[in-house]
Amino acid sequence: MAAGNAIDRAFVAAERGLDAPFGAHANPLRNLGTLAFFLFWVLAATGIYLFVYFDTSVEGAYASIEALTTKQWWLGGVVRSVHRYAADAFVAATLLHLAREWAAGRYRRFRAFSWISGVPLLWLMYASGIVGYWLVWDARAQISALATAEWFDATGLTAEPMARNFLGAESVGDRLFSLFVFLHIGLPLALLAGMWIHVQRIGQPRTVAPRALVAAALAMLLVVALLHPASSQPPWDPLRLPATIELDWFVLFMHPLMAATSPAALWLLVGGATLLLVALPSLSPGSKPVPAVVDLANCNGCARCTVDCPYQAVLLIPAPNVRSGRQVEIMPERCAACGLCAGACPSSTPFRSTGLLAAGIDMPDADVQQQRLRLEAALARIAPAAAGRIIVFACAEAANAATLEDARTAVLDMRCIGMLPPSFIEYALRAGADGALLVACREGECVYRLGAELTAQRLAGERQPILRKSVPRERLRMAALAAGEEADLVAARDALRGALEALGPAPRPRPKRDAAAAGRARSHA
Amino acid sequence: MAALRILAQLLLYLPLMALIGVFSTWPRFAVIAPDQALVRISLIHAAERKQECRKRSPEELAKLPPNMRAALDCPRERAPLTVELEIDGRVVLSRTVPPAGLRRDGAASLYYRLPIAAGRHRVVARLRDRAAGPFNYRREATLELAPGGALLIDFLAAKGGFDFRSS
Description:
A: 17 helices; disordered C terminus; B: 2 helices
């Protein structure tokens, strides 16, 4: 666990360091998963081109690749090299993605499905890459195919030694070679299907890399391809072994590992690592969050919570007895208790005049009624101040906002800033605050993935529920700061206060019902 | 500022490019030591039955259902294969391989690899595919194996036994 924390700190430091030149949006370390998706498509596109020229026979395979590499070096050779290096980059990005998610603890409970479904992808990734090298049918392919066969033979489950298939020239036929081609197409297709499953429990999954990153990755692959073109080893010869071969350590590292140990040791290592990865969510489950609850009496089936849930924990199910014909249902084991659904619910508003507030979907330990009471108590604390009164809505995972508390600043903390329905901001400005400061996680670091992003969209009027246009935006600031950046948070609060003092007290429009009552009183008079 | 950021990005991508370019081919992997050759023995062979077929007596046949009255009783189980490989007078492999199958009636298979010093070697391969008795297949040869060379030893009963192939 300590190692995980240290690695997490190292990752965080590296990510923040790279934010400066790349921006958080296009930071490669913050986009490892999307980068892997992009590299997969590069592999698919370049692989299709190579397949057009590839001779799928034992006699012709090596020659066809050599011809492509030498006679058409300016395109075929470059495409071959990009295919090779994209595979290496895919492995590197995937392993880094795995390490990042582990170090950040993103494998527990509501993340377990994504984590466990990612484990077979590692096998498929390596299998696709290893079989790809066999297609070249050079000395590297010979050594790799034999080593892989010997590894499987060590299980004792093969009816006859697989290694026999690669021993003599007569034992390798075109049919076996067709099998390799089939595997090199079938395994990546299975990998793609697995990648699709991998993101199924992620709401609004990011599978498309930012353009800047795409451009940089393509340029990088092209530069490496041009400077260091991929080449074949001597042709496959069962009676001749080169003393050494060029080995792709990203894809083929298991062969030297087996040579240095034994097939059994490699099975132990790979099998043990697989079992450990699959068991990790059970071995270290973490605390169980209190899931959101649905109040069907207040739910109109608008589905905003379903769309905004970062972990697909809110489902929309048919409900013939409800007017909208549908209602939401919580999958408790998938719920992170982030409250983003409550922040999205149109009935989660402090303006309702019912005695006890209730929302269609809410957090049982921090519902809309409790939130309004907490907000009113916070506003009461700063009410005696003359001007510059600030209410801070702070994400508990972001910079520690408690340090901001003073006579003119009241802090209302919440699990995630995305839990904040925008109507609470309007309510606070009407009920005594001169301005509002929203504290979110640093860009790219939202613990619940979408909190800061959805909140920004809601404030900008791009996503329901929106912050009404009548709310003065000049009295509102959003600070995206992580723990440890409290000094910046104080500076953000002071900057807002300075602006508020220049603006003067917030206008407090009377609630409509008060205005209507006043109008009725005037007419009676 | 934008130019500075792009420059910084380029500088940061350089080590990544180097990492991918370098480790896609380096360090080279030594499959065997430069002064070695590789001997591989691989065979699949169905050995003789463990027990001889026995002629059933008339009494035994009478006890059997009419459709199962085969004159000979031939137990399915095959004998294990015993394989020995001797190089320069030293036995480097001596293995008894059971037949495949739940009833032990399938072919037995063996795969073994052994790096040896390159040079001239006297290689003797022996195989017994019956329950008892001495080795009934034997082949010996003196071979010159070059560094990086390979000797493949197969067994094809139809062709008379062991098959040595070398570079």
